[in-house]
Amino acid sequence: MNYLRRISTRRLLTLCALTLVVAIGATAVAVATSGDGPKPEPKPLANAVHDALDAPQVPGITADVEFTNNLIDSSSLEGGDPLLTGASGRVWASPADGGKLRLELQASPELGGGNDSQILVDGDRFEIYDGTTNTVYRGTIEEPKGKHAEHGIPSVERIQKAIDRAGKHADISGAEPTSTAGQPTYTVTASPSHDGGLLGGVELAWDAENGIPLRAAVYAADSGSPVLELEATDVSFEAVDASVFEISPPEDAKVVELTPESADEHGKPREIVGADAVSKALDFELTAPKALAGLPRTGVRAIEVDGKQAALVTYGEGLGGIAVIQSATEPEKGNEATAESEELSLPEVVIGDVKGEELDTALGSALWFSRAGVDYVVVGSVPPAAVEAAARGL
Fold first, then answer.
1. pLDDT 10s digits, 147-157
2. What is the spatial distance between Cα 220 and Cα 336, in angstroms, rounded to a whole number?
3. What span, in angstroms and rounded, lies between the C-alpha atoms of 314 and 325?
4. What pTM value is reported for the model?
5. Helix 156-166 vs helix 45-53: angle between axes, to the nearest 10 degrees?
6. In order of start, what are the domains of the chain with their CATH numbers?
7. 274 in the Ramachandran plot: left (φ > 0), alpha (ψ -120 to 50) or beta?
8. What is the pLDDT of residue 148?
9. Do residues 364 and 384 make contact, with C-beta atoms less than 8 angstroms apart?
10. CA distance to 233, 240, 312, 314, 391, per residue, from 133 (Å)
11. Which DSSP state fits 13?
């Protein structure tokens, strides 16, 4: 895809990391280190979730944080990018005015220090400043849809039914009584029961008294240590001054919109699906075999890249599937991406008569190459051999 091809691999990695940080941070606005201490009384998971949702709202949250990122081998990275190498920092959150969150991260001195990253969430909008590349990423967080928001806190019975439905796709633990940062907490773990790709599972601990999440972690299938983890110490549940959230990136920062506007004359999102319809909407030839790397084709959809139509083709089901993004090739603009990509050591792979680049992380792989005027990005929560096989099948 054109934008992903032009940006450096470091920026691509940063984009993946910050997306996961926002996902964790927006859900768990406070986290804390596990330790010995008081534990709550045993309780069924549905009851523990209900009580957390029904707990009194705290006035605010302030905490020191530690962010762990082991997505990629640190030996492949140079410099101290806090979103890629892990970092320490501070988090502030306030439930007032639709909810606000500020997460500040700074790489450790051993990895070069400096290069602060700031993450702001204000209601349904988020903004991430990457100090390493002086880039601001902006976008929206889609609000949950359904009847729960309209009818307040769901009953225990309703929560249990939701857990039972989720249990058809994931192995979910009970609410284990634990102690986190000296506070009584409940901890739950969930792992895919099938089609999980390289994802091993996720873990979340929340305060038994006020329902605030106190730890969030993501695990790879082959590791007992977190690949991504956000944790904090010295958590304070007090009101946060509004001025804490009034920060702005440098005026010369580059801005990347992650949620571009795309709607028809009635304000509804444009949607073009199906191989035939998508082919007609493109200004290049679509490549969408009915099967790829042993996986059946499950969807073809038009997407927008740099204001132009592109295609997203998916194969297989669940996290074990593979996605192929295709867009028209444009001339390279300057050597900024080349200069920055030299800070990373990535292997080249041969795809037919062209060369591509491959990124191998603990949670998945990505491969991109260009051929006959089309850029291809093949990505999935699968080993590198799987995306290579898929790329050679295009």
1. 444 457 899 99
2. 33
3. 9
4. 0.72
5. 120
6. 2-256 (2.50.20.10), 261-392 (3.30.200.100)
7. left
8. 43
9. no
10. 29, 30, 28, 31, 30
11. H
